[in-house]
Each structure stands twice: as structure tokens, then as C-alpha cells.
Write a sequence for this structure.
């Protein structure tokens, strides 16, 4: 489990460098870019590559962030049972945040 | 002899006497990571609540363009740049690249972060001094 947590942390991190870079550039530097507006985001999400990268960003950022938090906490030598509870809690938080993050994307798509 | 107490009992890496210069990069990576996770959850919550209608979303975006939030966003830029560039360094280390020149690597990382940060920060804070590029209608 630790090996996978480590490998997936690297892999998701590498994806995030690109997905977050694209998110940043498209939101702030692609016209209409000076002000972020609902209509502007609606237009940008019609670009399939951007839609895909934003969904990837949601999934990978949540995984990377919560898995990172888990690593930080486990370094404080928590007991096995506490670690198991922590893992379950973080998975639930991640799934909850994922479900919470989908409706806004749908709202922007509908316009 | 130093006897670890409290939090240091549980994570001996954090004992001040054990900290070597190279470990500040590691601590900074973790601290910025936790801050970015906090921002990510806040970001999901704010956008989720704002995206209910175009009017609500645009109103919140105007609020987020005020000086207070802009300055915080510059802080976010610093965290993300450091975490991202240092993360690339970590991946390269894990693949076996650059370990022999780790000190030079570290300075190169910081140089890239500082340059990108200055460019980004100037760009982000400029509208506060010269007004927005396109005046809001």
C-alpha cells in the first residue's frame, strides 16, 4: 500500500503540473481572460481538451492532496487501526468532494 | 543528550537538532502542500456555491478581484510554484537524476520559482495600481 501511495503520488503530481498549468493559462490568459465570468467559463469549457483537463484536475488534485495529507499524518507514527480509520475517512472526503465538484461543471456546460 | 518530547517523539524527522539545511525544502514542500489542499477544498466549495447562477458567479468573481483576495492569491501562486517545481525535482531524484549535484539542483529550483513568482506577482498585482485592463461594464 505504501509503495502504491508513493508511486501514485508521483504520477498524479506529474499530471497536475500539466492540468493545473492549463487550468491557469486558460482561465487567466485566454480571451475572454481579464475578468473571469460565467459566460466566459461556459465558452471555454466547450473546448474538449479544457473540459477533460478540468475533470482530470478535479480527480487528481483531490487524490494528490488527500493522499499527501495521509502521508504527512502517517509520519507521526499513528497506530494501525488509526491509520485504517484515517484512510477510510480520507476516501470518503475525497468521494464527497468529487461528487460536490461535478454539478458546477455541469452548470457551466449548460450555460 | 537531547530527549525528544511531544510531537517530536512521534516524528523524529522534525526534531530541530536533526534538521539539516536540505530538510527545509522537505518541510516547505509539506507545508505548501497542506495549504494548497486547504485552498482546493475552499475553491471547490466557493465555485460550487457560486455556479448556481451567472449573476451569483459574476458577483463573487468581482469580490475575489478586490485587493485582499488578490494578495492572498499571490500567496497561493507562491505555494503552487514552489510545490510544483520542487515536486518535479523530487520526481527526478526518485528516478535517479541529479542526486550528485543536489545542492546546485536546489538553487536552480529556487531560482526558477523566484523568477516565475516575480513575473506572476507583478502581473497579478498590477491591476490594483493601474486599474483593470478592461473596465467592468
Amino acid at each position: 500500500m505504501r509503495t502504491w501511495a508513493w508511486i501514485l503520488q508521483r504520477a498524479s503530481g506529474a499530471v497536475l503540473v500539466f492540468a493545473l498549468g492549463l487550468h491557469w493559462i486558460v482561465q487567466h490568459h485566454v480571451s475572454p481572460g481579464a475578468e473571469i465570468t460565467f459566460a466566459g467559463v461556459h465558452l471555454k469549457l466547450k473546448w474538449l481538451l479544457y473540459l477533460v483537463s478540468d475533470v482530470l484536475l478535479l480527480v487528481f488534485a483531490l487524490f494528490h492532496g488527500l493522499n499527501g495529507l495521509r502521508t504527512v499524518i502517517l509520519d507521526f507514527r499513528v497506530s494501525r487501526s488509526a491509520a485504517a480509520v484515517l484512510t477510510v475517512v480520507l476516501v470518503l472526503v475525497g468521494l464527497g468532494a468529487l461528487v460536490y465538484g461535478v454539478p458546477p461543471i455541469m452548470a457551466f456546460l449548460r450555460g | 543528550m537531547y530527549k525528544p518530547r511531544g510531537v517530536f517523539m512521534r516524528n523524529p524527522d522534525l526534531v530541530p537538532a536533526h534538521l539539516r539545511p536540505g530538510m527545509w525544502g522537505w518541510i516547505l514542500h509539506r507545508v505548501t502542500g497542506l495549504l494548497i489542499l486547504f485552498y482546493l477544498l475552499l475553491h471547490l466549495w466557493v465555485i460550487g456555491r457560486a455556479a448556481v447562477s451567472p449573476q451569483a458567479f459574476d458577483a463573487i468573481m468581482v469580490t475575489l478581484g478586490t485587493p485582499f483576495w488578490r494578495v492572498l492569491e499571490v500567496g497561493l501562486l507562491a505555494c503552487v510554484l514552489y510545490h510544483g517545481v520542487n515536486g518535479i525535482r523530487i520526481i527526478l531524484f526518485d528516478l535517479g537524476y541529479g542526486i550528485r549535484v543536489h545542492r546546485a539542483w536546489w538553487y536552480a529550483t529556487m531560482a526558477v520559482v523566484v523568477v516565475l513568482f516575480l513575473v506572476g506577482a507583478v502581473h497579478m498585482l498590477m491591476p490594483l495600481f493601474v486599474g483593470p485592463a478592461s473596465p467592468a461594464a
Notes: The mean pLDDT of chain A is 91.
